[in-house]
Amino acid sequence: MSSATALGTTPQFLVLVALLLVVARALGSVTERLGLTRVVGELGTGFVLGPSVFGRLLPSMYDPLAPAVASTLLSDLSLLGLVLLLTLAGLETDVELVRSYARDVITIGSVGVAVPFAFGLAFGLVIPAFLLTDTTPRLVFALFLATSLCISAIPVIVRILIDLEAFDSTFGQRTVATAMYTDVVGWLLLSVVVGVARVGRLDLRAVGVVVLTLSGFLLGAVFLGQRVVDAILARLDDADGRGHLVILVAAAVGGSALTYAAGIEPALGAFAVGLLFARAGGIPDRARATFEQMTLGVFAPLFFGVAGLNADLGLLFDPTVAVVGTATLVIATVGKIGGVSLAASWLGYDGPEAVGMGIGLNARGAIEIVVATVGLELGILSTRMYTVVIAVAVLTSAMTPPLLRRVLQGISGDSTPR
């Protein structure tokens, strides 16, 4: 990029960032008052400032911002928000508690992925042909749709649980741990489907490389990364906590860069760094409070806001698209909540907690938007189906807070499986 181009884009970029922060704050306050938590308003920010609303109502003001909307710098800034939010989630996770119910996490998470995946695959095989692209085989499309419907958005789930003051509860810790597991499985499935779309066949070697890389990273984090973090924190003389804050952010960004370079979701690296710091005793309260305020007040809203900037929800006014979108939403919701609830009930969880985990994991939010964007760029999703998947991501996230708030009233703070 030339310096002239960069200078020409900078004012629009700065204006757009300012608008994202202000609108996210305003919409977050509105949705919080409506009982939907702040993250729902933050997710809606991108749609308000994108072509869906701003571009239609005030095109003369939106058009000058269009280059900034599409800028790589904005995407990188939103990625930083994702990294910091997942680091915060790892920092506040009770590692020993999560380890104690690892079997439950794997069982519930696996069923919670398999059921909506099966529903999505079956639905993808019968969707009207005019909603598909001409270049992608129907089976590849169906596999991609199934993958997009089986994932959970851990950044949204974390933010909702924090807003509902349920993150530190046993229920919250179980839900976050299961969400992270389903997130990892979902990204592995996505890598498989994308590989099939690119080469026209299942590349087992590529899948094996991803699995080995992921295993190597996790083992390295546990045995080497923990020692490094322990050694650094033990030698850090930092009365006001600023040094801890700098080390935490640097480690989070570095860990995310490492996983990204290895072909793994960067959020996993950030979450792992947070866990390492939690196991090492965390950071001083003052530094933790600053980190939380910075993350939840500035960077997380940017991440959620940017996620919807490129979506045009106006396509949902097409009657056929609206019907398919409604069916997709029902299939995704029933598959996720039903699968998770059945698995949790089978393991002995009481009714409210089993249903509550299903409701929590049904939030797909910005992660499904990212997956949909990949599908659009690869030509797997048509513009219409891209809009459908985006709508499902937003609506599942919007319905989660009120439903989860009601269910939480029947869950004991220290509930354990029978």
Could you characterize the architecture of this molecule?
With 418 residues, the chain is mostly helical. Helix content is 77%, strand content 0%. It is built from 19 helices and no strands. It has helices at residues 3-33, 38-49, 54-57, 59-62, 66-69, 72-91, 95-100, 102-124, 138-150, 154-163, 170-199, 204-234, 242-261, 266-279, 285-307, 319-346, 351-361, 365-377, 383-408. α1 crosses α15. The longest helix has 31 residues, at 3-33. Keywords: Ion transport, Membrane, Transmembrane, Transmembrane helix, Transport. The chain crosses the membrane at residues 65-91, 111-132, 139-158, 178-197, 204-225, 245-278, 290-309, 321-349, 361-380, 386-404. This is Cation:proton antiporter. It is a multi-pass membrane protein. It is found in: Membrane.
For this entry, give a set of tags.
globular, disordered N terminus, 418 residues, mainly alpha
Sum this structure up briefly.
With 418 residues, the chain is mainly α. The protein has 19 helices and no strands.
Indicate the topology.
Layout: H1 3-33, H2 38-49, H3 54-57, H4 59-62, H5 66-69, H6 72-91, H7 95-100, H8 102-124, H9 138-150, H10 154-163, H11 170-199, H12 204-234, H13 242-261, H14 266-279, H15 285-307, H16 319-346, H17 351-361, H18 365-377, H19 383-408
Helix pairs in contact: 1-2, 1-15, 2-15, 6-10, 6-13, 6-14, 6-15, 8-9, 8-11, 8-16, 9-11, 10-11, 11-12, 11-17, 12-14, 13-14, 16-17, 16-19, 17-19, 18-19
